[in-house]
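Can anyone check this?
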Amino acid sequence: MRRGARPAGALAALAFAVAFAAAGTADEATSPQPVEYEQLLKLLAARRHGHVTFTEVQRLAILDRPLESSGELLYDAPDRLEKRTLNPRAETLVLEHGVLTAHRGHRTYLMPLRDYPQVAPFIESIRATLAGDREALERLFRVGFEGSLAHWSLLLVPTDARLAGAVREIRIEGERDAIRSVDIRHGDGDRSLLSLGPEVSP
């Protein structure tokens, strides 16, 4: 991983550790959501595959300038995500069945996400969103919905004190069944912004 990069920021692009979904049940009941929220989750759940370009910008307090990267992101329901970073350095990250596999040069690394509870919530937030998994979303976060199906925004605020210490909020924006951006604001003031699209032709 590049010097200074946050694991959570890089992995947020990957999205989705089912292994973490069993952890951290929320103590408070989720407030009623508008009907558009239910419709959005159904739209997302119906989408089984995605292949888009991405750009990621990480703004870290310890660095004078932001870290930028770009490449392609592939998703196959319910829990496989592949992030192919092309610039500034080639790297492939594959997340499937709760295990992250990283390919860098001639080396391969395996990372079971159950061993990294500080990272898994970020990934689960996107996995659950892509999969339309309301139960998983509301187990980990207080969810706020704004907008319409044409242009929507989900604000995810951690309900678990351990997670809240690492991340203040995650805002996911999109249009119908397509996620366009994932904005993570960390507890220490750092920020990671992942922008998705356009789609890659088959």
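Reply from J.R.: I decoded it. The longest strand covers residues 49-59.
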